[in-house]
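call fold target=Imidazole glycerol phosphate synthase subunit HisH
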Amino acid sequence: MIAIVDYGLGNIRAFGNIYKRLGIPYCFAKTKEELAQASKIILPGVGSFDYAMELLNNSGLREQLDELVLEKKVPVIGICVGMQIMAKGSEEGKSKGLGWLDTTVVKFSDDNELEFPLPHMGWNNLSLQKDDPLFDDLDINPLFYFLHSYHFDADYEHVIASAKYSERIGCIVKKENIYGIQCHPEKSHHNGVNLLKNFAEVANA
């Protein structure tokens, strides 16, 4: 069962619609009982880092998420801000992140803001740096949709795919059972659908 965490952020219906079309069981997890069904977890997110952490900390699901991800090693994928809050913190705010990944989120340099306006919004190619089951049946240098001003450093040791805007950024990370993706697979047509399908099929760590 794919549990899509419903803590008040992210277009959870878009993920549900994709899994419904694929015939893959899913639920919107708003309670501990619903989250307990999870064999895979999607942690969506849009907006600011601090607001996302406030909502998640107030959802009543934080402790159970830590247990499922860190102790039981249930595969999880964080999307956009859902990826960013997996880090220790962000230059965007003052809140502590989940700390699942030993890094911090940084802002794009504004040195080239005329040529590369913020937020980074629109389509961009990914450079897939490592083989991973998440990438099965994706195009070569696949196009994905982005909307963000903060990102993971491309030199972070767990980056498995990157992209170039005004600078090279870490777009997809993987550490054991933990995936994070900065772009939006739910808005990225066939490449996004294939990525979400692949996530549903990855083996437990």
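return ok
The first strand starts at residue 2 and ends at 5. The chain is about 25% helix and 30% strand.
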